[in-house]
Amino acid sequence: MSRLCFGTYAKIVQKSIKEPNGQKRVTELLLGLITDNEDVTNQEGEPFVVTDKLASDLFNCKINMRKKIKEASSSQTIINAAHDYFEDVVLPEIMPEMIKDMIAELADLISSDDTVPQDKKEEFLRFADPASLHVFLSVLFLYVIKKDNKLSKESPAPLNNRMPSILSDVKKLKELIEKIHPGMPAPIAPPGEIESHEMVYVRELLAAYADAEGLDELPKESLESFPKYQKDFKRRRKDYYAAESIRRGARDVFGETNPDQFDVLKEETYDGIIDVYENEYPHGLARLKGVMSQAALIRVDKCVYSQIPNWIGASEKKGVCHMLVNDGKLREWVETDE
């Protein structure tokens, strides 16, 4: 069962936010409803500030929301300002092409959480429509901000109907792997059309090709005029969906785990390639290829999935790099002056 809390809510919203859309910025954007309208302080009496660590811990459900933020969210000032804040401040930061996917994912999360009362579910889902998006996001935000955000280590994570529940920790996960010997997740073939969740990394791929050619831009429709890039583009999408196959397959087999092993995979991959990413390159495509070559070589032993035969190979690790671009951890392949 997926659980509705600030972390899961924020992760879904993050996918739809325009760049830069790192965890800190998205947390600041959402909590701005409260910090812009109330004087919130930390334990030392200083103004409340969102740090990188705080944002990461909230996103990954490692800590609960700060008590003073929770208390401020109940003030009539905040409640009255919520709809307007999300309409005037948050919605302009959302990519229009991502709205339907975001609503669908949030609706699924609401529906699947058995801890949310049925009347609350009906209240939220009544606004799950693009025309009332600001209301949907604001009422949901005011709800999740008060919920426990920290995942309990003793909470069982559901498996599929053929397996018993297991505790969400690495030891139990390893024991389960040794017991059931899970097969390779069903591969996902790249669809003919670019999906909304691909938009960010695809944009950066095209920018890398354009940079290599000395062009300002290279639209996807023009790739057929550059056969080598068209071939490369297909290969990159294949890698992305190899990683996506693991992400979805692991969720279906193991349910939620603590820590999230796919997040561990992303962190391991990032740590293994970031020095190569930050090297100097003649153009963005050279940086892309350098990083991908490094990704194929690195070990990701901290991720339990790497211990399952045939799960994590070169293609999957390369695909994770594209996900890091989507997440904003790798900002872009083409170096800018910013």
Average pLDDT, rounded to a whole number, is 87
**Strand element count:** 2
Secondary-structure-based class equals mainly alpha
**C-alpha-based Rg, rounded:** 21 Å
* Major sheet summary line: 2 strands, antiparallel
- Measure the end-to-end span: 42 Å
Cα shape: globular
Strand coverage percent = under 5%
Residues in helix, % = 40-55%
Number of domains: 2
Low-confidence regions: 154-169
* Order of adjacent strands in the largest pleated sheet: 1-2
Helix count equals 14
What's the SSE pattern?
Answer: HHHHHHHHEEHHHHHH
What does this structure look like?
This protein has two domains: 6-144, no CATH class; 180-327, no CATH class. 55% of the residues lie in helices and 1% in strands. The protein contains 14 helices and two strands. A two-stranded antiparallel ribbon has the order 1-2. α1 packs antiparallel against α6, α10 (199-213) packs across α14 (314-327) and α12 packs across α14 (314-327). The longest helix is centred in the last third of the chain and has 28 residues, at 227-254. Residues 154-169 have low confidence and may be disordered.
Characteristics:
338 residues; mainly alpha; 2 domains; two-stranded antiparallel sheet; 14 helices; ABC-three component systems C-terminal domain-containing protein; ABC-3C_CTD6
